[in-house]
Amino acid sequence: MKPVLLIGSQGQVGTELKNILSSTYQLTSISRQEIDLKQPEKLRTIIRDIEPEIIINAAAYTAVDKAESEAEIAHTINAITPQIIAEETEKIGSFLIHISTDYVFNGQSNYPYQESDITNPLNIYGKTKLEGEKAIEQTCKNHIILRTAWVYGTYGKSNFVKTMLRIGKERSEIRVVADQIGTPTWSKDIATTISQIIPQLTSEIAGIYHYTNSGVASWYDFAINIFQEAKKLGFPLRIDKIIPITTPEYPTPAKRPAYSVLCCDKISKLLGTYPPHWQQRLQLMLTELHNN
User: Fold this and answer.
1) C-alpha distances out from residue 82 to 11, 79, 88, 89, 191, Å
2) Catalytic residue numbers, as ranges
3) Is residue 78 part of a domain?
4) Could you tell me if residue 200 is inside a domain?
5) Which of 82, 90, 110, 135 has a Cα at 20 to 30 A from 145?
6) Which residues constitute the domain of residue 50?
């Protein structure tokens, strides 16, 4: 069994990866409880001791708005940590799989972003994630950077779906931004995709890939679907009115791209299959959440 090191094993994607990979690989998992990523130098010793063939970095500072006031912490976790992991990966001749974000783009495109498109992040979170990408590209020859978007899942502390369910239980009315467009993506599908990439890892396929579920939505569309499906499943909800609003009507510390749909043709060609539609996957996730 190949030794695999998973960093960030208790997050949305990390938990799914742990569940999927633990039976197939000699998996060592590290969570935030076990290592403080604000002090990432400690990762060097861990990587050297384990000498994994594959390292998966599913850890990140993802609090987009909070990052505006915690830029140094976001930089350490999203930029310095990947650089350290990449340096050690290169030293031991391993392969690094790193998860990044649609927020490396400024959202001014009218078509789905390809991997080669110019990056220009609008916020601290996006800027630090891009710094992490560049550090990996400059440091580690054998790497996959997997950009994804609008991630939600059964696990992890919070995400848009869980927030909507909580608010929908408490209130009868909610206002949701309708002019930011992207693709909701189930964390289980990201983890499954990574598990499908691993057997194909060679230096020939190294580089950046985009992966999201298929289809597009605004946050408003996403919320409408969440409540429709949740009501069918019997979640306790008071909500009966969802009001679409514009971005200026809901000011946040961090600017967000108006359009951040990612083109998934490259990853689809590699895996021989196109990502499933987000609405279908939302149904499955909510069913899973309801049954847990």
Assistant:
1) 17, 6, 10, 10, 19
2) 125
3) yes
4) yes
5) 110
6) 3-158+185-214+260-275
- 117: which 2 tokens? 């498109």
How far is 205 from 203, CA to CA, in rounded Å?
6
Nearest to 12 by CA among 183, 186, 144, 194: 186
Task: With respect to residue 76, please indicate whether it lies within any of the assigned structural domains.
Answer: yes
The CATH number assigned to the domain holding 28 equals 3.40.50.720
End-to-end CA distance of the chain: 31
Of 118, 96, 100, the C-alpha closest to 109 is 118
Note whether 225 and 150 are within 8 A (CB).
no
User: In b/e form, how buried is each residue of 148-180, taking b as 16+ CB within 10 angstroms?
Assistant: bbbbbbbbbeebbbbebbebbeeeeebebbbbb
251: Cβ contacts below 8 Å, ≥ 6 apart: none
How many domains does the chain contain in total?
1
Q: Considering the domain boundaries, does residue 177 fall inside one? A: no
| DSSP assignments along 2-19, one per residue | -EEEEE-TTSHHHHHHHH
Distance separating alpha carbons of residues 88 and 98, to the nearest angstrom: 14
pLDDT, one tens digit for every residue, the chain (292 residues): 689 999 998 889 999 999 999 989 999 998 877 877 888 888 899 999 999 999 999 999 999 999 999 999 999 999 999 999 999 999 999 999 999 999 999 999 989 999 999 999 999 999 999 999 999 999 999 999 999 999 999 997 789 999 999 999 999 999 999 999 999 999 999 999 999 999 999 999 999 999 999 999 999 999 999 999 999 999 999 998 999 999 999 889 999 999 999 999 999 999 999 999 999 999 999 999 998 7
Predicted TM-score (pTM) of this structure: 0.94
